[in-house]
């Protein structure tokens, strides 16, 4: 079973498969959160590493600015040209800017801020000394500068600046190395966590694959078992259907034999008795006619009733086993029965017989007669027809029969219902002899046409040919059976229900 059911009967996924689905979803969520967290950590570590590099670069840049300022001042002293003072003036402005940016970058490092403050003080002193030296040079010339240089601490200040820059750069390099190590550690942790999550996801996927594979092969096995069961059921149904068909055909054969036996007994025994009674009644009536007219009249009424009874017996015998069928053949029997049908029901019934149909054997002849008999009974009961045509033709290999009416028409779906015993009996009679029977609406959906083919060969021989078809009949020529339904004029809808 691939699904369980809830209390309402609806199918649902088994619990373990639901848990696997939830686990897989949870792993994907954790992986997403981990990736987001690792990305943030790596971004922060990369920012700190970049910040350390920027601090180191700016400290070195301050050192370069101070060296350039001092070199420009010396060039001014040697040449006396104001042009050489450009780097000094630029350095004083640029140094303030660099110190401002360094304070922001080193805001999270108190020790470096302390070094930065000391460096800023030394740089300020150095700029003051250089500005004083420039003023002295402008007033006293180069000789006064030489005197000041002997007593000035400008060199020691510059050395302190260089030393402090080296210290700050070294500390920043150490911090950069530490942050690089932290960055690598964070990256390593992220990689390991990602590998772990991927391994867990792979395990869940492998487990899912095993479950799906097992379910697939289980479903295949179930389908094969179901297919074998269906094949067994189909063979059983075919066997039972064949058995029922054989039984139905056997019952038809037994019924015909019983009808023939009953018809013979009614004709021979009951007929003889009724004839003897009629003769005795005639003799008594002749003797009483002069002596007692009243008794003679009563006997005459009795004799009239006896005549009606004889006629009733004749009709019963004819229905059970038409004597014309055995004595004069199928064509005469159909003409007689259709003529009697028209006189009894008041519905004109035209009989068309083409070809030599009396060559049919007893089984084929009685089958055709019974199909016509049942079809006309249905028409009388249900069709409300105004005209009926019975057409029997000798075709290649057998007899082709059509019974057409212009009544209210038959419901094709109702004709296939199991309770349609009349149609079922007609079809079984045709199948009994290896033939076929088809019920359909008439031309333009008006009326009903029953078509049947009864082969004149053994039913185990070659299969009967399909319902024959031929071109439209010419005037005075043979009417092809398959075209009769489409060529007859109809004035009302067709054969009634069953």
Describe the structure.
Helix content is 71%, strand content 8%. The chain is α+β, with helices and mostly antiparallel strands and 498 residues long. The chain has two domains: 4-218, Up-down Bundle (Four Helix Bundle (Hemerythrin (Met), subunit A)), CATH 1.20.120.1730; 329-487, Histidine kinase-like ATPase, C-terminal domain (Heat Shock Protein 90). Strands 3-4-5-7-6 form a five-stranded mixed β-sheet. It has a two-stranded antiparallel sheet with strand order 1-2. A hairpin with a 5-residue loop joins strand 1 and strand 2 (11-12). Helix 3 (110-140) packs antiparallel against helix 4 (142-151), helix 5 packs across helix 11 (421-432) and helix 9 (362-383) runs antiparallel to helix 11 (421-432). The radius of gyration is 61 Å and the shape is rod-shaped. The two termini are 47 Å apart.
């Amino acid at each position: 079973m691939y699904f369980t059911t809830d209390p309402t009967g609806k199918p649902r996924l088994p619990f373990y498969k639901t848990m696997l689905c939830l686990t897989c979803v949870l792993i994907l969520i954790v992986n997403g959160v981990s990736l987001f967290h690792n990305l943030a950590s790596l971004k922060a570590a990369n920012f700190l590493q970049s910040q350390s590099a920027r601090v180191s670069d700016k400290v070195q840049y301050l050192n370069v600015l101070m060296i350039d300022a001092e070199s420009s001042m010396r060039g001014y002293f040697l040449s006396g040209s104001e042009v050489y003072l450009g780097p000094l003036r630029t350095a004083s402005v640029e140094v303030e800017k660099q110190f401002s940016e360094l304070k922001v970058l080193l805001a999270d490092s108190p020790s470096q801020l302390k070094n930065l403050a000391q460096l800023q003080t030394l740089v300020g002193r150095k700029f003051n000394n250089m500005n004083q030296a420039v003023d002295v040079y402008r007033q006293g010339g180069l000789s006064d500068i030489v005197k000041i240089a002997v007593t000035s601490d400008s060199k020691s200040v510059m050395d302190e600046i260089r030393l402090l820059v080296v210290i700050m750069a070294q500390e920043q390099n150490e911090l950069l190395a530490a942050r690089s190590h932290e960055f690598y550690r964070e990256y390593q942790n992220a990689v390991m966590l990602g590998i772990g999550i991927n391994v867990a996801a792979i395990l869940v996927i492998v487990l899912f694959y095993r479950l799906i594979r097992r379910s697939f092969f289980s479903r295949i096995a179930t389908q094969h078992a179901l297919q074998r069961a269906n094949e067994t059921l189909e063979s059983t149904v075919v066997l039972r259907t064949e058995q029922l068909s054989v039984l139905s055909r056997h019952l038809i054969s037994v019924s015909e034999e019983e009808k023939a036996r009953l018809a013979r007994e009614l004709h021979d025994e009951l007929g003889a008795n009724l004839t003897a009674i009629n003769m005795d009644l005639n003799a008594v009536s002749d003797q009483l006619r002069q002596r007692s007219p009243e008794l003679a009249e009563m006997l005459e009424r009795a004799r009239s009733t006896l005549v009606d009874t004889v006629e009733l017996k004749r009709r019963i015998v004819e229905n059970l086993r038409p004597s014309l069928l055995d004595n004069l053949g199928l064509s005469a029997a159909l003409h007689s029965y259709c003529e009697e049908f028209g006189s009894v029901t008041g519905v004109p019934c035209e009989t068309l017989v083409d070809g030599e149909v009396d060559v049919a054997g007893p089984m084929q002849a009685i089958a055709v007669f019974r199909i016509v008999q049942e079809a006309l009974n249905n028409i009388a009961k249900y069709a409300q027809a105004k005209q009926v045509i019975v057409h029997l033709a000798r075709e290649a290999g057998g007899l082709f029969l059509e019974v057409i009416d212009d009544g209210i028409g038959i419901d094709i779906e109702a004709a296939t219902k199991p309770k349609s015993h009349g149609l079922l009996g007609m079809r079984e009679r045709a199948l009994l002899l290896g033939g076929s029977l088809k019920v359909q609406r008439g031309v333009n959906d008006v009326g009903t046409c029953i078509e049947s083919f009864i082969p004149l060969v053994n039913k185990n021989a070659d299969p009967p040919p399909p319902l024959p078809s031929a071109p439209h009949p010419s005037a005075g020529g043979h009417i092809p059976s398959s075209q009769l339904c489409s060529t007859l004029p109809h004035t009302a809808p067709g054969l009634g229900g069953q």
